Recover the amino acids of this structure.
């Protein structure tokens, strides 16, 4: 009566394992291949014309110190921007989670908008507003009788200001999460024991949020070190370089200084890697508040008439980060020549007509859309498998795979693209200068984004839902098809849209990797800014923003449905 | 001539099962059998390894050592390197979280196992409706699973588990997420259903009442090992360790010196350090020189007049009374320790007053070593 029992533990899950290791290998090659070449170039002290390198050494790293000004600039901009972003984030988080300011919930949702608007758009708009000579604000200042200029955006603090406006929404999300996850009974207990409001604030509230805010500070600082767009648009006219723009300059100039650029990239990467490591440590250990992940209803303080002042603060921030930049670009795009005071004959729709008819712009936009669709579609499949592999498969190496996949997060996209460029130039298949290389680059640099988005939804799906299908006798493939994927669909759609948006707005990687016949939109906007006309650039930026906004609307609709869909 | 009644062949055999998570042992060598049609319960506090054992039988966890056979077929063996996948073991399971698929209707949820088995559409419809009727969910077949209450989800999970006639049903604390009243109702319903289907089942719970009410046999587990196996009655009446005595109901534990010189009438006699003489029964268990006996709190009787019995009667002062509705818990001083008695419907007794406390020797059970 007893049947011969067949398969051994290894062969019984081999299909799964095979698929798993295959995907993991693809991810590893995508990530590690360019990183290898980045390090190779950084350590290459031989003749720069000859590859592979003839001699290795650390001279390139000491070469960095020939540019002390750049290191100082980077530090100045990053510190100033981090401080400002944290102030924005903290103040907005406090106002929107802890006070009864009118329209809190609407403002909380609007706080995500600056992030999607991108620092590039902000930099273009603020350059129009605050350039010392032609800036609208300074024009108005002089018209009112002032002399010289009121503000100068082409300085370290101007760059930091623009970066902080946009990174402020990231800081807000992180700090608000900390404030929300704090159990209000902790403060209530303090008050019951007889402590005053101030004492409660100082002895209970602050110590509890400090680890979270510190974590946000480190994360934001790492992002600032690697940020590129604002420093490029606002710093280049004055030859004010930070490390990312310096790397770009060293690679683009003739003759290029590849090796020093690589050494700078590796150093920047090392610092960011350390920062993110620190961040993880803080989030994992110190902050007892964020670790539970449980959301409480925070205690809302009645601030009386002060709330209208706080409302003003919220409006002001959103105006500076969103309203004013968009209005400025829209105004400039409708002018023949952008000046602060509109004249009757100066209005035109020509810029938009040119933007959609000019071949260079049209093909760049089409390429970007094509890449957006490609990256999002391939990315969802690849990153979905990776997320499943890391968080669900219990493969022995899943921890290691997670590290490899999350690796690009610690590398600025520009530096990563530099490694890619250097790697694929010598690759036997000629994809350098084509859209294929950009596709590879996007898939690699957005891997952490996609995997995290899908994993977020995947981890919400109770494991027993899949196990139950197994107990009903369903094979792995059948389970995945009938249970896992249908439950994941909202998450996959959200990931698709996020990848699409990210691809359309990508600058750091694209600017190095696009070839003359494979232009994409964001670097084209930068090129147009420096080469063609301000007004046309404004129109192009607005068209790009419109595409992103459409995707955003769909995204919000989808995520709303996810919320309604989840059980209990 | 056939032999009169041969011992039925066990349906599930678990043999020296061990399961480690990394270096942490969850199950440390567990063996038991489940007979065909039997309902066996794994009972124990959280972290005792009961759920892990169940999941190992299901095939959802891979054990570290041991053997599992179902219907005589080895589904896991560390020595023979056999590990049949969960979906090939022909079992079914009701999950603690119910695991109702939110993207399907009630009907689709229940039909899943049949569709996996490529059952014809007409037959699927018939069987699903039958199963849903059995759990009184027939009218809700077209509902989305997300619109169901906890109790309804529970019923759907149940119908889904038995509709494809699996050989064994596994239950992982299926009632723990229901409120107390519903839990009591579902307990009776589940027991009835199990009898009607005549299906072999393994049930995991930490709830004593549930285990006593629903099981043919109970396996009490602790720290990854089996503490005692027996029928509910045996486990309750004759606990073999202090842990089981206290976990299965509430009990007074009394330690004393064995007075072999006083043993008579099949009773074991011990003397406590305070000098009390206690008559107990060994039920065939070996009695050491310092035995421990267990007395259930419900078996201690309080009276204001001296009772007729002469053995195990003591005059004691009342230290504390706690009114708990259906019974009153009375703490009395007894030498250097307290005894706890649970008395039903009793007139209030003042603290400090002396009363008689007594217990029949058959309720004083010598615990195994």
């Amino acid at each position: 009566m007893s049947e011969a029992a067949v398969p051994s533990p290894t062969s019984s899950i081999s299909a799964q394992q095979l698929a798993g290791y295959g995907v993991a290998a693809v991810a590893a090659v995508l990530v590690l291949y360019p990183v290898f070449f980045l390090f190779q170039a950084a350590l290459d002290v031989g003749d720069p014309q000859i590859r592979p390198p003839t001699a290795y050494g650390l001279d390139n790293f000491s070469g960095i110190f020939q540019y002390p000004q750049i290191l100082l600039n980077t530090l100045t901009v990053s510190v100033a921007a981090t401080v400002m972003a944290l102030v924005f984030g903290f103040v907005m988080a406090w106002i929107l989670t802890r006070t009864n300011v009118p329209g809190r919930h609407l403002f909380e949702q609007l706080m995500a908008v600056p992030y999607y608007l991108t620092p590039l758009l902000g930099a273009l708009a603020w350059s129009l507003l605050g350039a010392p000579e032609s800036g609208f604000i300074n024009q108005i200042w002089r018209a009112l009788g002032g002399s010289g200029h009121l503000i100068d955006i082409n300085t370290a603090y101007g760059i930091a200001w623009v970066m902080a406006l946009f990174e402020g929404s990231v800081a807000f999300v992180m700090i608000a999460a900390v404030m929300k996850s704090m159990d209000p009974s902790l403060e209530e207990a303090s008050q019951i024991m007889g402590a005053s409001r101030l004492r409660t604030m100082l002895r209970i509230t602050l110590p509890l949020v400090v680890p979270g805010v510190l974590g946000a500070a480190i994360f934001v600082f790492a992002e600032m070190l690697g940020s590129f767009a604002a420093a490029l648009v606002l710093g280049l006219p004055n030859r004010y370089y930070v490390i990312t723009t310096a790397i770009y300059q060293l690679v683009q100039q003739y003759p290029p200084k590849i090796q020093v650029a690589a050494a700078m990239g590796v150093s920047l990467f090392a610092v960011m890697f350390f920062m993110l490591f620190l961040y993880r440590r803080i989030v994992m250990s110190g902050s007892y508040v964020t670790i539970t992940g449980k959301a409480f209803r925070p205690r809302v303080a009645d601030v009386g008439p002060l709330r209208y002042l706080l409302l003003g603060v919220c409006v002001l921030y959103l105006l500076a980060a969103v309203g004013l930049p968009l209005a400025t670009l829209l105004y400039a795009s409708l002018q023949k020549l952008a000046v602060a005071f509109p004249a009757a004959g100066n209005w035109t729709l020509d810029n938009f007509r040119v933007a959609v008819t000019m071949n260079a712009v049209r093909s760049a936009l089409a390429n970007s859309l094509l890449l957006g669709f490609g990256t999002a579609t391939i990315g969802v499949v690849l990153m979905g498998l990776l997320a499943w592999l890391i968080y669900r498969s219990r493969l022995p190496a899943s921890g290691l795979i997670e590290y490899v996949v999350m690796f690009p997060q610690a590398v600025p996209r520009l530096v990563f693209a530099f490694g890619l460029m250097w790697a694929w130039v010598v690759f036997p298949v000629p994809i350098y200068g084509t859209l294929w290389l950009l596709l590879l680059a996007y898939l690699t640099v957005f891997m952490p984004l996609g995997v995290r988005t899908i994993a977020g939804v995947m981890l919400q799906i109770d494991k027993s839902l899949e196990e139950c299908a197994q107990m009903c006798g369903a094979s792995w493939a059948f389970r995945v098809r009938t249970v896992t994927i249908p439950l994941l669909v909202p998450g996959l759609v959200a990931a698709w849209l996020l990848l699409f948006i990210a691809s359309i707005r990508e600058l750091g990687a694209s600017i190095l990797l696009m070839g003359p016949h494979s232009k994409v939109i964001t670097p084209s906007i930068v090129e147009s800014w420096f080469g063609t006309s301000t007004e046309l650039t404004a129109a192009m930026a607005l068209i790009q923003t419109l595409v992103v906004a459409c995707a955003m609307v769909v995204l919000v609709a989808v995520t709303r449905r996810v919320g309604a869909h989840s059980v209990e | 001539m056939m032999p009169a009644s041969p011992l039925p062949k066990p349906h599930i055999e678990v043999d020296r099962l061990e399961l480690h998570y990394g270096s942490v042992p969850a199950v440390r060598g567990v063996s038991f059998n489940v007979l065909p049609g039997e309902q066996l319960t794994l009972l124990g506090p959280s972290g005792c390894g009961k759920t892990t054992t169940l999941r190992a039988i299901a095939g959802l966890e891979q054990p570290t050592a041991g053997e599992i056979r179902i219907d005589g077929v080895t589904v896991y063996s560390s020595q023979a390197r056999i590990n049949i996948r969960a979906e090939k073991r022909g079992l079914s399971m009701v999950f603690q979280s119910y695991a109702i698929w939110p993207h399907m209707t009630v009907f689709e949820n229940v039909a899943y196992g049949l569709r996996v088995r490529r059952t014809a559409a007409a037959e699927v419809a018939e069987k699903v409706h039958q199963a849903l009727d059995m759990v009184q969910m027939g009218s809700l077949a077209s509902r989305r699973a997300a619109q169901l209450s906890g109790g309804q989800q529970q019923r759907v999970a149940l119908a889904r588990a038995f509709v494809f006639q699996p050989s064994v049903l596994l239950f992982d604390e299926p009632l723990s997420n229901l409120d107390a009243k519903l839990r009591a109702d579902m307990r009776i319903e589940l027991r009835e259903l199990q009898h009607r289907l005549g299906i072999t089942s393994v049930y995991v719970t930490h709830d004593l009442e549930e285990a006593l009410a629903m099981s043919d046999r109970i396996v009490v587990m602790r720290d990854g090992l089996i503490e005692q196996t027996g029928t509910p009655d045996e486990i309750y009446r004759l606990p073999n360790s202090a842990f089981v005595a206290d976990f299965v109901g509430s009990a007074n534990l009394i330690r004393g010196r064995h007075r072999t010189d006083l043993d008579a009438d099949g009773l074991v006699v011990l003397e406590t350090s305070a000098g009390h003489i206690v008559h107990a029964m060994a039920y065939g268990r070996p009695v050491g020189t310092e035995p421990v006996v267990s007395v259930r709190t419900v078996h201690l009787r309080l009276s204001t007049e001296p009772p007729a019995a002469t053995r195990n009667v003591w005059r004691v002062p009342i230290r504390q009374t706690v009114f708990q509705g259906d019974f009153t818990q009375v703490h009395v001083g007894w030498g250097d320790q307290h005894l706890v008695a649970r008395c039903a419907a009793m007139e209030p007794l003042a603290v400090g007053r002396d009363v008689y406390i007594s217990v029949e020797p058959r309720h004083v059970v010598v615990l195994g070593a």
In short: The two ends of chain B are 44 Å apart (CA to CA). Chain B touches chain A at residues 58-60, 62, 71-75, 77, 80-88, 90-93, 95-97, 99-103, 112-113, 116-117, 145-146, 160-161, 164, 170 (CB under 8 Å). The longest strand of chain B covers residues 24-34. Chain B has a mean pLDDT of 89.
